[in-house]
Amino acid sequence: MNTGQSLFAIGALLLLSLTILRVNNNILLTDSIMIDSKFGLIANSIATSLIESATEKYFDAQTKEGPCLQSELTYPPNKESAETNPSNFDDFDDFNNYTQTDTANSAVFYSRCLVSYVNPNPSNPGSLNNNVSTRTWNKKLTVYVTWRMNEQNIGFSADTVKQSTIYSYWFF
Amino acid sequence: MGFTTLLDIAGSMIIGGILMTMVWRLSDASTEKTYNNSGELTVQQSLLTLAEMIEFDFRKIGYCNTWNAIVDPRTNSEFKSTDAIFYADESSMSFYTDLYPYDGNLDSLRYYLGPLSECTSTPNPRDRILYRVQNGDAPVASNLGVTDFRMVYIDVNNDTLPTPVINRGLIKSIEINITVENVAAYDEKYTNAFWKQIRLASRNVSRSKTDD
């Protein structure tokens, strides 16, 4: 084989190697996206479960027995002593700062809940995103679920699933 | 031809063979991944479709558009929300709700999982058909590759109720587990996706507990 032929052979091998690397890269990238997408579904179901679990509870510890004055509502939203998990939570704001770890498909999902008061203004939909530091008849639960980070980083990862709901108190 | 030429030919055949093998493996891996990823996408879309449909229907258990004039279709008497679920088993549930066009007349809805024997024509040995029956009409279904549709009924004390649930008025929340797999897969490598524990505390049923 003369020098020209050798160079052609080396060039062909280089092209083939690059092609193989690109194909492998694409395969791994697609796998990664598919797995993230699958984990996203599970994370959404965990967030939905937490929201459903929270909306089963009383609006506030003070409204368990009946209506109360707005000034008597729990502030800041927090759980009472001896309440450790949703099975013994009795009201909505017990979920504030509640964290949970679930394992599914060999992945660990970290969840964190935050509860705050909101003051919805029909003419300003953005008011639903503003936490207020006063007692109102509307509480907002925000659930963060992530499978990439540890508990300390929940809410900061780009892959965190975030769902929220507003829970209002009505008495007829 | 000299010995060197023969050596060149033998060497190039070996290297050519290695390259051919690499290209063949690459092609095989690409084909497999294309099939698997398409299957995975289908599985996730099917699961999402099911979850959306079930969530939409189950959230309205006991709902009626004209809430103050609900009549029990079985007895024509006043409807009790504790009777909204009239059958509750592990993989089957029947309940009353008001479906489109929301005319105020209660409709019955039944979800149940068909037997394994119905899907013998598909390569996956575990897939089954999830049926939705509205008002006793012909069951509506499509094979989305459901391999598990399991419900757990929970009472007000967060205790699990044994199935079939005899006293359906005790049901406070329902935990639903759905697993979907490909109906066919490359090299029988089935992928699955599951919706873990949707706990649907139907407000209409929950409220009936506090009325007791």
Structural account:
The complex is a heterodimer of chains A (172) and B (212). Chain A is of the alpha+beta class and 172 residues long. Chain A has one domain (3-168). Chain A is built from 1 helix and 5 strands, in the order αβββββ. In chain A, strands 1, 2, 3, 4 and 5 form a 5-stranded antiparallel beta sheet that branches. Chain B is α+β, with helices and mostly antiparallel strands and 212 residues long. Chain B has one domain (10-211). Chain B is 31% helix and 25% strand. Chain B has 2 helices and 8 strands, in the order αββββββββα. Chain B has helices at residues 3-58, 203-211; strands spanning 85-89, 92-97, 107-113, 130-134, 146-154, 160-161, 173-181, 192-200. Chain B is rod-shaped and about 105 Å long. The N and C termini of chain B lie far apart (101 Å). The relative contact order of chain B is 0.17. The interface between A and B is medium-sized, with 26 and 30 residues.
Q: How many extended strands of chain B?
A: 8
What share of the residues of chain B lie within helices?
A: 25-40%
Instruction: State the distance separating the first and last CA atoms of chain B.
Output: 101 Å
The fraction of residues assigned to DSSP E strands of chain A is: 15-25%
Rg of chain A (CA only): 25 Å
Tally of DSSP helical segments of chain A: 1
Note the gap between the termini of chain A. Answer: 95 Å
Classify the secondary structure makeup of chain A into a structural class: alpha+beta
By oligomeric state, this entry counts as heterodimer
Radius of gyration of chain B: 27 Å
Number of domains of chain B: 1
Q: Judging from the principal axes of the Cα atoms, what is the shape of chain A?
A: elongated
Q: How many β strands of chain A by DSSP?
A: 5
